[in-house]
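FW: tagging you since you asked about this chain on Friday. Here's the raw sequence from the shared folder, copied in full. Didn't touch anything.
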Amino acid sequence: MKVAVILPNYNHAAFIAQALEGILSQTYQNWQLWIVDDGSTDDSWAIIERYRDRDARIVAERFPRNRGILAAVPRLFELCSGDLLCAAAADDYISNPRYFEFAVAALQRFPQAAAAFARAELVDGDHDDRPLGSMGCYLPTRGARAAVKDDATGVLMQFIPPREALTRFVSHHMFIPGCSVIWRRACMPEFDILDEALGPQGDYFYFHALAALHGAVFIDTPVVVARVSEKTYNGTATDEDYFRRHALVEKKLRALALPYATDERLWGQFRTATIASRTAEFHQRRLFKTLRGFCDSVPPSELQMFPPESAAFVARMQDECARLETRLNSQIEWARQIFNEVAGPAESLPLGCESGPRPWLRPVAEFFLSLGKILGKTFTGLGNWLWQV
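HL: got it, structure written out here
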């Protein structure tokens, strides 16, 4: 199986050599790389030429002027050929030399799957690549088929059936990162990956729609390092842009000709999870509850003994909690109205009702999942187990 790698570039001379080295380091050798330089004005093209001369599998083309991603990516699709597709980014890099090997093995083992995806480690591209955590996950429903260890590669792989893929995606318990997924090209013509109305959420819809139709394989290991920047299209999106695009994702998912029936509650789950994620609702409410709990725990007789400034601070905390909670509630209601306007009415579910652990276990599960991002699989595994108890 040949892996077609496509790489658009615009003024990423500082990073593109690292991206190319990650591809060249792959143990799986049956790949070819197509690069379109989108009229860069830095040293990108000289670096690209140097690597093209070094390896015949690299094909490069240069636009004489900057035309944008909506021109570069279609041109890459015209140029490339292969059974599988990996869409690389010039400012990210493959950190695991067995990435292609893992993905090919997964798609050979599960021929019904449209894609294989793994975890990506996030770094702050604006502040010296400071670690930020990871993305790319699958938290299965209770009773789902367990992951299997692939004999050839030694990694855990888990096939996610189509219905399960949709169910876990809408509740934010499955996420397929664009930087760490490899697709079967035979499945790809079903949708337009460059839907201008979806903006940066185009690939987000595309990946999860194909998984909802055909299923996907989760490979439980990090393979890519992705740089996050506030200067990117996603990073500069307003809340309104974010909610409107996600509402359009929901609308398009609803329109899919799925081979199974869906519960209307799915879309309420999607809205609840999407809004909660953007607003950090869970953590904000936990903050308000903690602060109020402290204020309420101080007996009036003790409060009278506080210095005036400290007593005034306690009173201000109570007032600020009320003000900020009102603002949060207004933001959530405004977001729901956007979803209703774009995607039609749907029942919104209370936070935490969509799925996951019992409410009292949720903070514990999230703590161990967060710890796992730093300290490794043991803590991630414990967090996943608590999530399903």
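FW: The chain is about 45% helix and 20% strand.
HL: agreed, and The CA atoms of residues 205 and 347 lie 21 Å apart.
FW: great, closing this out.
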